[in-house]
Amino acid sequence: MMMSLGGSIAPFGSAFAHFGLAGEDDVGHEFFWVYGIVLSSVIGFIIYRKFWARKDPPEVRALKRQLSELERALKLFQTQLKNAEDYPKECGLTDQQRQERLDSVESIQGQITAAKADLAAT
């Protein structure tokens, strides 16, 4: 950032390109180190996140997995109900099917609430 600021302050000086002079000087060396540091930082962050996620006990991971599956199922049933409402000719449901979907949504919401409470308790 300081290099960019210096380049903007001295507009009549030599042209700057990525942390070095673009004239007769070799800027490849700076490219190598700057992009190497950025790449290693990204790789380090990914490894850190993987390590942090595995620190959870197996019970917590199972609860998180169960919660994500329940949320996915809830979204599926809600989408089916919304499509049946928006497009009654194409995706229409009978009254019995609609009632089954509504019962499933209520049941899944209860299970999600219980899973979140279990997750908060651990």
Walk me through what this model shows.
With 122 residues, this protein is mainly α. It has two domains: 2-52, no CATH class; 57-121. Helices cover 78% and strands 3% of the residues. Strands 1-2 form a two-stranded antiparallel ribbon. α3 (58-86) runs antiparallel to α5. The longest helix is centred in the middle third of the chain and has 29 residues, at 58-86. It is elongated. The model has no long low-confidence stretch (mean pLDDT 82).
Question: Topology of this protein?
Answer:
Elements: H1 2-9, E1 16-17, E2 20-21, H2 28-54, H3 58-86, H4 88-91, H5 95-121
Question: Largest sheet, if any?
Answer: 2 strands, antiparallel
Number of strands: 2
* Fraction of residues in β-strands: under 5%
Q: Provide the succession of SSEs.
A: HEEHHHH
Mean pLDDT: 82
Q: What Rg, in angstroms, do the CA atoms define?
A: 28 Å
Distance between the termini: 45 Å
Return the domain count. Answer: 2
Approximate helicity band: over 70%
Shape descriptor: elongated
Which secondary-structure class do the elements indicate?
A: mainly alpha
Strand order of the largest sheet: 1-2
Number of contiguous helices: 5
Low-confidence stretches: none
In short:
The protein has helices at 2-9, 28-54, 58-86, 88-91, 95-121; strands spanning 16-17, 20-21. The chain has 122 residues and is mainly α.
Keywords summarizing the entry:
78% helix; two-stranded antiparallel sheet; 122 residues; 5 helices; mainly alpha; single chain
